[in-house]
Design a protein that fits this description.
The protein is an all-alpha fold. Helix content is 81%, strand content 0%. α2 (71-100) runs antiparallel to α3, α3 packs across α4 and α9 (260-300) packs antiparallel against α10. It starts with a helix and ends with a helix. Residues 1-15 and 228-258 have low confidence and may be disordered.
């Protein structure tokens, strides 16, 4: 009995030590989690800031440079505005939600945020579809479409994109009812019909159209490059297509070459550049958005239930497309390059 009591008297310090060790481990784990969340929040904040700056630069370049105020660039400007709104209204709340690991802003803000998120991201994707359509008409019907390519037509196209985006993203507001405190603010997949309607309307149909249009654009550009006797038509069409990588007239460059072999080399080089640009545009779009919409469709069909970390990663992979868009749609255009240099010089002077 004394031995038992003696052992018992020594037990509490052992138990206290065990509890103390467990508490220290929990504290270390908590610090590690907080540190990880802060690191992720800083990284995502940098992406959001970069997205806002890049798209803001595109908007400023078009507004301040007379040479860029063309109907074709109105679509680019509208795309930049849409992606700027993603960086300004969507990304910051997503960062806060990820950093806090819970939603603390209430039901109303949750509904508004999800609606703005869906509308802006859908609008960004539909802009890419409209830009592809505009470039297809410009290169296949260069002379005829030049007369039709007016500011009024560009405004109508932009308006149609925004209306379609609202019609795709707004329906859940009429039946979605979140009661009580909302600690999780995510897109619900309780309506299979709407999930199919929204994913196909926001992505799968536009993606199919974009692939078809750019395939035909490349075919048309390739045939134009191979035409020796119509260099002026070649120049006009490719200027509309905006695959020129220098301010010089590609038709005049071909005329200066006497050797057929040299002309073939120039044409082949331009074909490769066109293919590379189209590949970058299509590749970035598909890599950024296809995984997210596959996940959304599989969740609606109850085939997949990804973890929050996977969902956040795929969502931000889509957001990154708003950062890539201004790089892809302006960096191959010499006029935009000169406008950006002008903006940097103005900033240095101020």
């Amino acid at each position: 009995m004394e031995r038992y009591l003696g052992e018992s008297s020594k037990a509490p310090p052992l138990i206290n030590y065990t509890h103390s060790n467990a508490s220290d481990q929990r504290a270390e784990f908590g610090v590690a989690v907080v540190t990880e969340r802060l690191a992720v929040a800083c990284l995502l904040g940098l992406l959001a800031l970069s997205t806002a700056v890049m798209n803001g630069a595109v908007i400023a370049a078009i507004l301040t440079t007379r040479k860029l105020r063309l109907p074709a660039n109105y679509l680019i400007c509208s795309l930049a505005v849409t992606d700027f709104l993603v960086a300004l209204l969507v990304m910051p709340l997503s960062i806060l939600y990820i950093a806090m690991a819970t939603w603390n802003l209430g039901r109303v803000i949750c509904e508004v945020w999800l609606s703005v998120d869906m509308t802006c991201c859908t609008c960004s994707i539909l802009h890419l579809c409209v830009i592809a359509l505009d470039r297809y008409w410009a290169i296949t019907k260069a002379v005829e479409y030049t007369r039709k390519r007016t500011p009024r037509r560009a405004v109508i196209m932009v308006t149609a994109v925004w209306v379609a985006s609202v019609l795709i993203s707004a329906p859940p507001l009429f039946w979605r009812r979140r009661r009580g405190d909302v600690h999780h603010c995510v897109i619900e997949h309780d309506q299979l019909g709407y999930s199919i309607y929204s994913t196909f309307g926001a992505f799968y149909i536009p993606m199919t159209l974009i692939l078809i249009l750019y395939y035909r654009i490349y075919g048309a550009a390739k045939s134009l490059y191979q035409k020796r006797g119509s260099s002026r038509h070649l120049s006009d069409s490719l200027n509309h297509f905006r695959v020129e990588l220098s301010p010089s007239d590609p038709g005049m460059e071909l005329e200066k070459l006497n050797s057929p072999e040299e002309r073939n080399q120039v044409c082949s080089s331009r074909e490769r550049k066109a293919a590379r640009i189209l590949g970058l545009i299509l590749g970035a779009f598909i890599v950024c958005w296809l995984p997210f919409f596959i996940k959304e469709l599989l969740m609606a069909l109850n085939v997949l239930q990804p973890s929050p970390h996977v969902s956040d990663f795929l969502t931000w992979l889509g957001y990154i497309n708003s950062l890539i868009n201004p790089l892809l749609y302006t960096s191959f255009n010499e006029d935009f390059k000169q406008a950006f240099k002008g903006l940097l010089k103005r900033k240095e002077h101020t």
